[in-house]
Amino acid sequence: MLAISTMWNALKQPDGASLFDELKDLGFEVIALSRHLTLEQIQQLKPLFREIGQKPPCIIQNFCPILPGTPQAEAENDIILLSSLNNDERKEALRRTIQTMELAVEMEVPTVVLRLGEVDTYDRSYLMTDLYDYGEREFEAFSKKVTEATEWRKRKQAKHRDAVLRSLDELNERALKMELRITIENQPHYYQIPNFDEIELLFNEFYGSPMHYWHNVGHAALQEKLGLCWSHEWIEAYSEHIIGITLYDLQELDPYHPPGTGDIMWHALSAQLPSDTLKVIEICHGDAEEVREAREFCEALTNTLEDTEI
Q: In the chain, what are the domains?
């Protein structure tokens, strides 16, 4: 199945029904509910999925709808975290995530993609991005800055991991009762949770739970560009847990471009991607025609995978 995220037009189309029609007109039968949707847009979307034959959204992200007081343009910035050391903040993040899960049940969305939070450390991403922009990616100074940033993370990560474990303990229990699948997603920045090693830690801790792995191709590619982890290693290590994949392209370090229009080597990557896994195009750039081309590109990629496995 190939779906598209509402990220593409959530900010441009305030009316939920019109937003939905635009995505259907692009040739998609299924949509994914992103964290950019307002409560009003959600309320306008709900009746559309009660129509006979209309497939429900395939996934929903926490927090959806967007948190009160947060501008849509800033939806990617988390203001409350499941990893927070402030217990009141963490509990509020839990409450809002559970609200997202309840919305998933109401709209018959089977899967909730979780944003787990981050380690509270001074963001040293600029140490890597500046050198990357200057063309210093292959030099020793770059690897030293990567090491410097990740070492600072290690000094503070244990307590935040513990907070995430407490949060996931409750969310897994809720998901089991609600008959939902929850997924943890690889993130683009070194200070976010989970990093590469933490995914294994979380699955070991919650073995047998309804928790799965959601692989974001763009996030993995960005981590590779910034010297953090080879992009192919995520799928190799966690393929048994994968139930879905996010597809977007990078132009240098700029994310959310239509697949096939950036730097990712898709045909090399395609050998890794499971053909029978849900795939979601998540982009904010491109007009309608570019989105149609991206859909055709991804459909051809999926067909190639299926032909290879026959």
A: 2-123+157-309 (3.20.20.150)
